[in-house]
Every structure is written in structure tokens, then in C-alpha cells.
Amino acid sequence: MLTTGALVGAMLTSITTGGVLSAAPAKADDVTPPPVTVYVADVILNQVVSIAPAAGEQTAVGSGLNQPNGVAIDTRGAVFIADTSNNRVVKVTPDGTQTTVLDTGLYAPTRVAVNAAGDVFVSDTLHQRVLKLPSDGGPQTTVGTNLRTPSGIAVDTTGNLFIANFDGGTVVKIPGDGSPQTIVATGLNRPDGVAVDNAGNVYIANQGDSRVVKVPVDGGPHTEIGTDLNGPSGVAVDAAANVYIADSSNHRVVMVPAGGGGQSIIGTGFALPTDVAVAPAASPTPPTPSPGTGSLSGFGSS
């Protein structure tokens, strides 16, 4: 079985050798930054940072991280981090307090998501499962079946869970009402990130093909989002349907406005950004800055 280091190393190899090898950075068009805060996990720099595009500010979030691959935000502004090589999930509240959500029984957790009720979902990747941690403190459960290297996860406004099967080439949906699991998209090439907008449209970071695709809720044809991407690993959507992409091998985060139009770069200087999450500016103040680096002992991606 793969070790944690082998998993993240293999995934990094898939980023750096797959897709466009020499994509030129896209020009940042004259687009007004949306009033949001964007959170980015950088697996090589061992940190998560928050970016306020409108203010041009960047702040470290969390401490003692080791190859963090995933990041999510709850409705109260708390940041959840899949701290992959520490085999744990941590929570950082708006005042900067960091606590451990789960640090037992995990094997290379790569992504995390939180629903409106506060339930936490974790891609326990090398255990080939996704866990649900109820907000009321009840026992954790396993959700989904026949998963193959589950990576990106997302929850929509009605409680449906979406899982990207990195090695399975699919994205599946676990309905919140308990009905059977269904396939949202198939024939994908190393799908690594997934997001859902308020209308129910699904966005997939199809890392192996260096593109992000949108799967319409009405079942219409898939469309491509963004340009000049290179091994994108993470994707997020804000309330206005603007799309944010962790463009991993271009070492940047880009934003594609709702409805298309000029793509803009909202963050650069990353070593390997693997996931992105977004919170509205009206959310509580981002967590207090803290030293966000751990030992650089290997590399990888979710």
C-alpha cells in the first residue's frame, strides 16, 4: 500500500508531468476583484493563506502544518485544513485559535468540506473512503461506496455531497436524502477538485487534462472554464458564481467571472497551490496571522 509520502509524491508527479507543460501565464484583465476572502492550501510551502483580492492582502492561517492539501470554510468563518502528512484535520477559528478536529484513524486525508449544519466531511484518501463527522459529536460514519483515491469533496446547499475519484476518473453524488449514489461525470482524467454553485452546477478540476469543466444541473453539455491552465487541482465558486481555480503547475490562483469574460490572477508566488476555498467579505474576520510552515519533508497534491 502507498505511504502518505508516496501518495502525495505520486499526485505531484501527475501534476508536473500531465497536461500543458509550458503554459504561459494568462494576462490579468481589468476585472474588479469580488468582495470575498480566498483561502489557498500550498502543499510544498506547508501553509494555508488567506487572500483579500480587493485589498491585495495575504495572511498565513494555521501552524505546524505538513503538506496541507485541502481547505474549507464554515458559515461562521472557521477554516478547516486537511493536514495530509500529519494525518489530521485542524480547525482555525476567526480569532486564530487552532484545534484538532480529527487525528486518529486517518491515512493521508487530502480534502475537507463542511455543510450548513456544521458536519465535517474528510477525504481519507489512502483508506479509500470519505468520513462524516457530525456537528453534534455523534459517531463518525463512512459515506460513499467503491471510491478510488477520493480527493476533492463539496457539499451543496441542499446537503448533497460530491466526491472526485482521482484514480476512478469520476465524480459521484451522495444525495443528502439518503437515496442511492449516482455518477455526475465519468471519463475524467485525474479529477482532483470539485465545487458546486448555488444553482447546483458542478465544477471539476480535471487535473490530467489541465482544464476545469462545468457540468450543468440540467444535464446539458459540459463547458470549459478558464484558459491556459496547467494541472489545476482545486476549484471553488462564490455566491455570485465567480469561479476560483488553484492552477497548480502555474503556481497561481485565478478567478473566472460568472458568465465567462476576462480571467484574472488573484494570487501568485505559490510553490504548489492544491486547493482553494472562498468566503464572503461579510464573514467574520479571517484568522489571526500565525507561522504557517512545518518541516518540508516531501511533496504532493490532493
UniProtKB/TrEMBL annotation:
Coiled coil: none
Region of interest: Disordered: 280-302
Pfam families, A to Z: NHL
SUPFAM superfamilies from the UniProt entry: Calcium-dependent phosphotriesterase
Record InterPro entries: 6-blade_b-propeller_TolB-like (IPR011042), NHL_repeat (IPR001258), TRIM-NHL_E3_ligases (IPR050952)
Keywords, alphabetical: Repeat, Signal
UniProt-recorded name of the protein: SMP-30/Gluconolactonase/LRE-like region domain-containing protein
Biological source species: Rhodococcus opacus
